[in-house]
C-alpha cells in the first residue's frame, strides 16, 4: 500500500480540518496516511542552564515517517514549512506545501485548489525541486553542543542592551575576516528573500549553488553582503566577551558563549519540494514581494 504523510500545524483549526479531509480522500484511494504535528520540527530556544540539544539534526524526523513515504503534505504557513523541512529532508521525503497561513511565500498550493491538487497527486503528475539545507552546529572544542537543520538562515547577533559585536568568520580555505556589527546572517538562496533581504542582502535564485553572508547594522561602509560557493564550510567565532544569541529559521536557537564556535555546512540531504507546475521564481517575487512591478506615477 502506498503511504503519504501529513504534517499539520495543529494549533490552527483550519489546518486540522483540511488535514482530515485530505486523509479521507487518500484513504479512499487506497493510500495509507501517517500524520505528524509540525511542532516536531520546532526546536525552540535552548536554555543555557539546561542540557543542550546534542542528539543531532535527525532527531526532528517523526518516528512514524520513513523513506517509503511517497510525499508529505504540509498544512500551515511559512513557519510550518520550515519545520516540515527539518522533519523530512534527512530521509529524502518530498513535501507539498498547502498554505493555510498568511503570506505563503513557500506555498505551492492553496485551499481553493485542493480538489485538483489531490487528483494531480494521485495521478503522479508532479515533479521535485531541491533546495539547499544547512547543518548548523555549535561546537566547544571537539564537543557538539547543539545542532539543527536550516532552510532559510542562521542569524547570530547581540543581546538587547549590549554593545556592538565583533565576529571572526572563516570561509573554507580563505583567510578569516573580521566584521564589526550588531550581528551576521548566513543565508541559503531560499533564505535570501527572508531576514537577509531585510538586512540589505541580494535576492538569489534558488538554482544557484551559493550562500550569502550579510552583516546586520555593520559599523563600516566596507562591510557588505558576500556571496560565495556553498561547498565552502563556514565557521563563526564570536570575538566578544558577552554571550550572543543565535536563531535558526526563526524557530530554533541557543546562546553562544565566547568559548563556542558556530560551524555551518551544506547538508548532503536537500529539502525536496513537490512542484505541480513549472516554478516561476520571478513571478513569485512579483506576487509576494512586489518585485519588478511597473512604476506608476501618482496623480497630481
What is the CA-CA span between the terminal residues? 66 Å
Shape: globular
Number of strand elements: 20
Name the CATH architecture of the largest domain. Answer: 3-Layer(aba) Sandwich
The neighbouring-strand order within the major sheet is 3-18-17-10-13-14-15
CATH topology (fold) name of the largest domain: Rossmann fold
Q: Please write the CATH class name of the largest domain.
A: Alpha Beta
* Unreliable residue stretches: none
What does this structure look like?
With 300 residues, this protein is of the alpha+beta class. It folds into 2 domains: 137 residues, 3-Layer(aba) Sandwich (Rossmann fold); 133 residues, Tumour Suppressor Smad4, CATH 2.60.200.30. It contains 5 helices and 20 strands. The strands form 4 sheets. Strands 3-18-17-10-13-14-15 form a 7-stranded mixed beta sheet, with no helix packed on it. A 6-stranded antiparallel beta sheet has the order 9-8-19-16-11-12. Helix 1 links the parallel strand 1 and strand 2. The protein is globular and about 60 Å long. The N and C termini lie far apart (66 Å). The relative contact order is 0.17.
Amino acid at each position: 500500500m502506498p503511504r503519504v504523510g501529513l504534517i499539520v500545524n495543529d494549533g490552527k483549526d483550519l489546518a486540522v480540518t483540511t488535514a482530515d479531509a485530505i486523509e479521507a480522500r487518500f484513504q479512499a484511494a487506497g493510500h495509507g496516511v501517517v500524520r505528524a504535528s509540525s511542532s516536531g520540527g520546532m526546536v525552540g530556544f535552548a536554555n543555557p542552564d539546561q542540557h543542550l540539544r546534542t542528539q543531532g539534526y535527525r532527531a526532528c524526523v517523526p518516528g512514524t515517517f520513513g523513506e517509503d513515504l511517497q510525499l508529505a503534505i504540509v498544512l500551515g504557513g511559512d513557519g510550518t514549512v520550515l519545520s516540515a523541512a527539518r522533519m523530512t529532508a534527512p530521509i529524502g521525503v518530498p513535501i507539498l506545501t498547502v498554505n493555510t497561513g498568511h503570506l505563503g511565500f513557500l506555498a505551492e498550493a492553496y485551499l481553493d485548489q485542493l480538489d485538483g491538487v489531490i487528483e494531480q497527486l494521485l495521478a503522479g503528475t508532479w515533479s521535485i525541486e531541491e533546495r539547499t539545507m544547512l547543518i548548523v552546529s555549535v561546537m566547544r572544542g571537539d564537543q557538539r553542543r547543539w545542532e539543527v537543520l536550516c532552510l532559510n538562515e542562521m542569524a547570530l547577533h547581540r543581546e538587547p542592551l549590549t554593545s556592538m559585536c565583533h565576529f571572526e568568520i572563516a570561509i573554507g580555505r580563505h583567510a578569516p575576516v573580521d566584521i564589526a556589527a550588531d550581528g551576521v546572517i548566513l543565508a541559503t538562496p531560499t533564505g535570501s528573500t527572508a531576514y537577509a533581504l531585510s538586512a540589505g542582502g541580494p535576492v538569489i535564485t534558488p538554482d544557484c549553488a551559493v550562500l550569502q553572508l550579510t552583516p546586520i547594522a555593520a559599523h563600516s561602509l566596507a562591510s557588505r553582503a558576500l556571496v560565495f560557493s556553498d561547498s565552502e564550510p563556514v565557521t563563526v567565532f564570536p570575538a566578544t566577551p558577552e554571550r550572543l544569541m543565535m536563531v535558526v529559521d526563526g524557530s530554533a536557537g541557543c546562546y553562544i558563549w565566547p568559548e563556542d564556535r558556530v560551524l555551518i555546512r551544506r547538508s548532503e540531504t536537500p529539502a525536496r519540494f513537490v512542484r505541480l507546475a513549472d516554478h516561476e521564481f520571478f513571478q513569485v517575487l512579483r506576487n509576494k514581494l512586489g518585485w519588478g512591478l511597473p512604476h506608476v506615477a501618482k496623480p497630481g
